[in-house]
Specification:
alpha/beta; Maf protein; 6-stranded mixed beta sheet; 6 strands; globular
Length: 174
């Protein structure tokens, strides 16, 4: 089974490997350069849109069984701002299934920078001095003092996308 992931980030590739390998045999994970076609720090619907765009583009570019998109962004709910990641899986039958990771509240001290378009990873690097934090523990790893890292957060979200494939009869899939 060929899984095309719309990213070169080693954390995202490992997330796909872990999730798909749990349920499917002979999984091959490949990295595909796929543009999200949303701002580098997506806000609101742009977050899911970016994941869907990456999934579609990856599937098409690699002629894979599944295309996977993962996009971190800021979501507003109940007057508060949260970081989350959105996930999408596209398949060759034209199906698109989505999910999200857990959400965590955006620190008020960085919210203006995020709204101005600066990426969480860039801000986190500046605050901590940790280079390439997005390819390591991510902002969530820093802000939870290592209790939850980016990989763990993203594994949760990608599992949510796999629900329809694990329950095909309920979703009308073949």
């Amino acid at each position: 089974m060929k899984i095309a992931v719309g990213s070169g980030n080693p954390v995202k590739l490992e997330v796909a490997r872990e999730c798909f390998s749990r349920f499917f045999d002979k999984v091959e994970i490949i990295s595909v350069k796929a543009d999200s076609n949303v701002p580098s720090q997506p806000i609101g619907e742009e977050t899911m849109e970016g994941a869907i765009n990456r999934a579609r583009e990856s599937l098409k570019a690699a002629k894979a069984d599944f295309g996977v998109g993962m996009e971190g962004g800021l979501i507003e709910l109940g007057g508060r701002s949260y970081f989350t990641a959105c996930f999408a899986i596209a398949d060759g039958s034209g199906n698109m299934h989505t999910g999200t990771s857990g959400w965590w509240e955006c620190p008020k001290g960085i919210l203006p920078e995020i709204r101005a378009g600066r990426e969480l990873g860039e801000i986190t690097e500046r605050l901590t001095g940790i280079k390439n934090v997005k390819q390591k523990q991510g902002g969530i790893g820093v802000f939870t003092k290592g209790a939850v890292d980016r990989k763990a957060l993203y594994v949760h979200g990608l599992y949510m996308c796999l629900v329809p494939y694990l329950n095909k009869e309920l979703f009308g899939l073949r």
